[in-house]
């Protein structure tokens, strides 16, 4: 696309600020996704504005990432962190401020790509008020999530109704795995268009360091077996399953293990309770010495951790996609993951890692042990994992698919020509 054709599009991610530090509070995969998709689309010539909610009076209102890509923070409710289940009531103000921004800047976005159900609602309003075409990515489906949790929040029914409406009314919904598409069809609605375009990762960054120097940087000797978790502290992430698996006596006796748990804030933040709970389990199981809690890891140091690890474990109860799995795989590290959702798409059982039933510490212990006990097989899994990510999950490839989709939506007549590019 040349710059004369450059089109303004809006990525909306109300609760997931693409410009914020990842790994703290509720910041995770969605923030990473929006930021990378935005920047990659800008490189393809789109003029990308990414809208989010301002959570702190000291935050800049606009952050420029690239000449064609910026984050715009709008006020909606008080300027403080609000957990995602309590944001819905502030959305009308978000929409008003979005419209005001458009007016002040002389822009009407012809296409809005919304992320998570909260932004999905915003997109629906823009679709109705000004005819913006809506593309939506769920990042998490309420109906699947609530099936795996005991407590339903008060907002649950509103969320489910909006998720159904968005699927039926948006121009298209982007499922990030065939499994997510299947969930949408069987559990949300039989109506509406769905395209499958996966999430991606930076294959230059992840995999750009060799294992020996990664271990040297972290001061880990070559004999130690490193089991790694990276991600938010949220009960649905299943960190407890991993800790209990590594705590199994058979595994501990047969291997000299270091368990590294990356991510999370200190107590006092929204994810602090889960971190305290996990730390307690570690202490109860007498695993304090072998376990390291690193806190938040930036994307500058994360490649070192992934590469230094012998196995990365993603023990989620439910995972719509799971960026951590492909980041580890891109780093040449096999993954042991729960046999759920997007992980069934990214991790090929016995080829790039192993899948185990969620919340089954015994099965995770067996899977981790199998990989740690056979270093040649571990290496082969790692090589295949890297190849899989290179061929399917690079951001550039993902952005190219999204770009094609937007172009088709905006210029149906040009469909043929675009397909030839
Ligand atoms: N992450 C990070 N630092 C941390 C913990 C997590 O940068 O300390 C990043 C991680 O690299 C990944 C994202 O947060 O890109 C988590 O995405 P995923 O899809 O695995 O989980 P989600 O947070 O969406 O549930």
Summarize the structure.
The protein is an alpha/beta fold and 421 residues long. The chain contains 17 helices and 14 strands. It is globular, with a radius of gyration of 21 Å.
What this model shows, in words?
The chain is an alpha/beta fold and 421 residues long. The chain folds into two domains: 3-200 and 395-420, Rossmann fold (3-Layer(aba) Sandwich), CATH 3.40.50; 211-392, 3-Layer(aba) Sandwich (Rossmann fold), CATH 3.40.50.2000. It contains 17 helices and 14 strands. The chain has an eight-stranded mixed β-sheet, with helices on both faces. The chain has a six-stranded parallel β-sheet with strand order 11-10-9-12-13-14, sandwiched between helices. The longest helix has 18 residues, at 375-392. The termini are close together. The structure holds uridine-5'-diphosphate. Uridine-5'-diphosphate is lined by residues 22-23, 28-30, 32, 230-232, 262-263, 296-297, 299, 302, 321-324, 327.
């Amino acid at each position: 696309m040349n710059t004369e054709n450059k089109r303004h599009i809006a990525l909306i991610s109300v609760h997931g600020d693409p410009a914020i530090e990842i790994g703290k509070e509720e910041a995770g995969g969605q923030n990473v996704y929006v930021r990378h998709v935005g920047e990659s689309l800008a490189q393809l010539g789109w003029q990308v504005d990414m809208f989010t909610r301002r959570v702190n009076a000291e935050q800049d209102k606009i952050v420029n990432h690239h000449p064609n890509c910026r984050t715009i923070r709008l006020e909606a409710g008080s300027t403080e962190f609000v957990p995602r289940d309590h944001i819905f009531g502030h959305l009308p103000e978000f929409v008003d401020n979005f419209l005001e921004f458009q007016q002040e800047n002389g822009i009407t976005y012809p296409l809005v790509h919304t992320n998570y159900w909260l932004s999905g609602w915003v997109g629906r309003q823009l679709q109705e008020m000004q005819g913006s075409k809506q593309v939506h990515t769920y990042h998490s489906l309420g109906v699947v999530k609530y099936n795996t949790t005991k407590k339903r929040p008060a907002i649950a029914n509103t969320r489910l109704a909006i998720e159904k409406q968005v699927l039926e009314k948006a121009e298209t919904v982007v499922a990030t795995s065939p499994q997510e598409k299947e969930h949408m069809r069987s559990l949300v609605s039989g109506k509406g268009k769905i395209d499958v375009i996966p999430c991606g990762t930076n294959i230059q960054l992840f995999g750009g360091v060799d294992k020996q120097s990664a271990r040297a940087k972290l001061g880990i000797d070559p004999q130690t077996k490193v089991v790694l978790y990276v991600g938010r502290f949220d009960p649905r992430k299943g960190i407890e399953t991993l800790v209990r698996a590594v705590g199994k006596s058979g595994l501990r006796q047969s291997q000299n293990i270091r368990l590294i748990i990356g991510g999370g804030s200190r107590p006092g933040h929204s994810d602090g309770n889960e971190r305290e709970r996990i730390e307690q389990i570690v202490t109860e199981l007498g695993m304090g010495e072998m376990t390291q809690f690193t806190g938040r890891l930036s994307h500058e140091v994360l490649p070192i951790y992934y590469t230094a690890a012998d196995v990365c474990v993603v023990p989620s109860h439910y995972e719509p996609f799971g960026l951590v799995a492909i980041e580890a795989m891109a780093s040449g590290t096999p993954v042991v993951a729960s046999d759920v959702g997007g992980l069934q798409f990214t991790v090929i059982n016995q080829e790039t890692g192993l899948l185990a039933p969620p919340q089954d510490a015994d099965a995770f212990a067996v899977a981790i042990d199998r990989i740690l006990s056979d270093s040649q097989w571990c290496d082969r899994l790692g090589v295949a994992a890297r190849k899989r990510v290179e061929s399917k999950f690079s951001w550039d490839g993902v952005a190219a698919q999204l770009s094609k989709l937007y172009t088709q939506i905006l210029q149906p007549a040009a469909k043929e020509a675009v397909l030839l590019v």
